[in-house]
Amino acid sequence: MNIRIRPCRSEDLEAVLNLQKTWVQEDITIGMGADSLEDLSNQLNHYFYVVEKDGRLVGYGHGRVHEADNMAVFEDQEKYFELEDLYLVSGERQRGLGSLLLSEIMDRVKADGVERFLLYSSTKNLKPLINFYEGHGFKTWHVKMYL
Fold it and tell me: So where are the chain's domains?
């Protein structure tokens, strides 16, 4: 078994889109959908990584650096990285690949001098998600609930 976490290339975007479609079919989030190839292309930056297993993409993650403006957890104008997506196909979860992927992205961001991170999730299964990110040092800022 050969596993590689590497920067995403433009030729990977069709496979990433297929991963997003798989994620939508899993019905594990509320109100989220797959991007278009054009949207994915616009998101392609040096913080966009894929997980390749035996030559096949099984996951991806990406985000962008922003500047804080009137946020309770960051100083104004402080740079922070917002993780926009982190996904692995269901058969590859709970094997450490998500941690490897997140660590690779965070290391790249920190190498660029950004030390603060933020993420938002609309997952239907919140407890495992919180446990995963807390295991990487994240803290909960706020939670929205509905009935």
Answer: 3-134
In angstroms, the CA 57 to CA 40 distance is: 15
By residue count, the chain amounts to 147
Strand-strand pairing, 3-7 and 79-88: unpaired
For the domain made up of 3-134, give the CATH fold: Aminopeptidase (3.40.630)
Of 26, 35, 62, nearest in space to 46 by CA: 62
Between CA 4 and CA 8 the distance in angstroms is 11
Q: What is the CA radius of gyration of the chain?
A: 15
In tens digits, what is the pLDDT along the chain, a chain of 147 residues? 899 999 999 999 999 999 999 999 988 888 888 889 999 999 999 999 999 999 999 999 999 999 999 999 999 999 999 999 999 999 999 999 999 999 999 999 999 999 999 999 988 889 999 999 999 999 999 888 888
